[in-house]
Amino acid sequence: MKYITDFASGFMGLFQTGAKTFIGWMSSIVPVVLLLLVLMNTIIAFLGEERMEKLAKSSSKNVFTRYMLLPFLAAFMLGNPMSFTLGRFMPEFYKPSYYAALAQFNHTSNGVFPHINPGELFIWLGIAQGVQKLGLNSMDLAIRYLLVGLIMNFIGGWVTDYTTAYVCRTSGVKLSKEVNLSK
């Protein structure tokens, strides 16, 4: 019987600890995420959706803007998973690479911009808590993670361009490198 009661106590303790963590988030990170979302929606409303679409379309023409600038802006303004919708302005040939760069950026930006990928925030908070216990600044780690992520996301997008070209060449598929929004 002791094993059963110990298991039940431990099981309830898990939920009590989770509840304490949740209440801590409600007074710390949740208001920050909420205000960042308000800022994001305000910027989009101020600029207008047409300008955001025009920016995405023009960004697709340059490798740096395609895999560094546009993924950053899409993730910051729209968050995960909505940021993937800007890929519709990419030519078919670049869509796999844009997806690769953006998917990675949605993970590497959580420390600085928690509103981008709130579903994985608990991972970053766990890492940050360990860093803080060591007496280190978690924002230093967050900035480094973001900068390394930007560079690696760019490389990932560019490598995916070559992979897409190889697959197209070997399979005989021809993907357009021109934006065509009329489809």
Automatic annotation (TrEMBL):
It comes from the Bacteria. The keyword Transmembrane helix applies. InterPro entries: PTS_IID_sorb. One of its GO terms (cellular component) is membrane. Coiled coil: none annotated. The chain crosses the membrane at residues 22-47, 67-86, 142-160. Pfam families: EII-GUT. GO terms for biological process: phosphoenolpyruvate-dependent sugar phosphotransferase system. Keywords: Membrane, Transmembrane, Transmembrane helix. PANTHER family: PTS SYSTEM GLUCITOL/SORBITOL-SPECIFIC EIIC COMPONENT, PTS SYSTEM GLUCITOL_SORBITOL-SPECIFIC EIIC COMPONENT. This is Sorbitol PTS, EIIC. It comes from Liquorilactobacillus sucicola DSM 21376 = JCM 15457. The lineage of its organism: Bacteria, Bacillati, Bacillota, Bacilli, Lactobacillales.
